[in-house]
Amino acid sequence: KFTNLALQPVITPELVQGRVHLKCTYSCPSSKPPLRYVVVWSRLSSPGKKEQIQRDTTLQSFSYVEMNGVNLKLGDTVFCTVTAFTRDTPEQQSLPEESKGFYAGIKFLPESLEIAEDGKEHVLTIQSTVPFACPGHDDSCKITLQLSTEDLDSQLLGPPDIALSACQVDLLRAPCSESGCAAAALTVTAVTDFAQDGNRISRIRAEPVGWKDLLWRAYTPKDVKVTVRDLPTGNCYSFTDPHIITFDGWRYDNYKIGTFLLCQSASRAFEVHVRQWDCGGHRSAAACNCGVAAR
């Protein structure tokens, strides 16, 4: 009987005659007579369950399966399992060795985000793990993704909880490597809404646009879950004639007429101006807010 042959199967993506294929390669130990290999392709049909989609018997050190959009689609996690035997004793086979799962499609890295309302930008990388073919071998071949956000706590009214640096990204075709076949990046920032509304959950969705072939037309990548942690925000006030309360609780009055800088951020380009006008009586001088501008 065979011992463990350390076949170490690995799945990589390839374009074969303009079509997307997955290739299972494995080590071929020298043997007389030559070894034959049974390669079983399967995909994850539900958590913990696999569905066989193809079975090959070959003398080669590799096996292909086509992603045709029917038996094997974008969004599938694919495995190949390899067993070796000799032609003379096919009943004696090596222990089956399974590859790591290969996710075929578009991935977001990280797959989920936990951010806070602190103004910080968080980089989100979008990666295609499979190549894409364009007619005419165009060097500018790309996939355009339309991005959108959705607040899952829809019962709460107000502005969106997250902001993206772009509404569309282009994945430009490049030679496939361990880091994928195409990639792009954008930034995600939690919106500081100055409201004590608790932690909220949003999602980012990406949809390929402009592609007509079956493989990409019927595909929507997995959403990215974004948890936004609510942070307490400071408040300052200017009211009546006018009394002013600062962010740190100091109180004072300003009865002068004119335009004044009420608030200015030390960390970003943000400031608030107020305009005060005479609204006093004969007995005492007073001014009231008559205008406000923020930038």
Automatic annotation (TrEMBL):
It comes from Steatornis caripensis (Oilbird). Residues 234-295 form the VWFD domain. It comes from the Eukaryota. Signal peptide: none annotated. Keywords: Disulfide bond, Signal. The keyword Mitochondrion does not apply. Pfam families: Ig_VWDE. PROSITE patterns: VWFD. GO terms for cellular component: cell surface; extracellular region. PANTHER family: EGF-LIKE-DOMAIN, MULTIPLE 7, 8, VON WILLEBRAND FACTOR D AND EGF DOMAIN-CONTAINING PROTEIN. One of its GO terms (molecular function) is signaling receptor binding. This is VWDE protein.
